Amino acid sequence: MARLKDPDRRALIMRVALEHFSARGFHAASIKDLATSCEISLGSLYTYFRSKEELVNELFRHWKLQFANFVAEGTSEVTGRAAHRMVWSNIARYIVAHPDAFGFLEAQLHATYLDDTSKKLEVELNDSLINYYQDRIQLGHTREKAQLVISATFGSYIQVFKASQAGLIKFDHATHEQLEILAWRMASGS
After folding, report:
1. Residue 82, Cα to own-chain centre: how many angstroms?
2. CA-CA distance, 24 to 18, in Å (whole number)?
3. What are the tens digits of pLDDT across the range 66-97?
4. N or C: where does the chain have the smaller number of CB atoms within 10 Å of the terminal CB?
5. Do the beta carbons of residue 103 and residue 22 sit within 8 Å?
6. How far apart are CA 25 and CA 60, in angstroms?
7. Average of pLDDT values for 46-55?
8. Residue 9, φ and ψ in degrees, nearest 5
């Protein structure tokens, strides 16, 4: 008879894996160390995830969907500048609330070990944000211009996040406000 998997233990593995991958990166993180940190045997860990690649992909999809849901909060009620502000305010709130997850997601983008399902999710969420920019922010952007604005803005948030993690600056409300204003100027051309 097959053993039932404990959802609490699975959640523990996912939580500790996020800590390990965030702190060490995919290649330096060890499955053996992860099992030890979870206080389970290596064999037990492998009953939940067949490989490190399967675990990182599961973790990526979990946090990417959490990120997408967080960013989408309240965005359907607004248009124009308010829609732009809402998206980037939600991203800033996510960064503050889940710094390990944000750092983990940022480090995984374009990684060779992401499977087709993870890559497809990334493309779908990116397309969704492009569509949002075109439909709700209503600046008349082509897909290419919307992608450029989104990429440049997101890149600035990533760099500010990294600088804050290094203790060079503080990622707070004032910093976010400055970033959002710069992003709006870039998006609107003003």
Report:
1. 22
2. 10
3. 999 999 998 888 888 899 999 999 999 999 99
4. N
5. yes
6. 13
7. 95
8. -70, -40
Lookup result for tokens 């979870």: 38
Q: What is the CA radius of gyration of the chain?
A: 19
**Which positions ≥6 away from 87 have C-beta within 8 Å?**
71, 75, 129, 132
Residue 129 CB partners (closer than 8 Å, separation 6+): 71, 87, 150
Alpha-carbon gap, residue 25 to 48, rounded angstroms:
21
Q: Are 133 and 188 in contact (CB under 8 A)?
A: no
Q: Decide: 54 and 70 in contact? Cβ < 8 Å.
A: no
Contacts with 83 (C-beta within 8 Å, 6 or more apart), sequence order: 75, 132, 136, 137
**Structural tokens at position 154:** 């997101």
Q: Angle, nearest 10°, between helix axes 52-72 and 116-132?
A: 10
pTM assigned to the model: 0.90
| pLDDT attached to residue 1 | 37
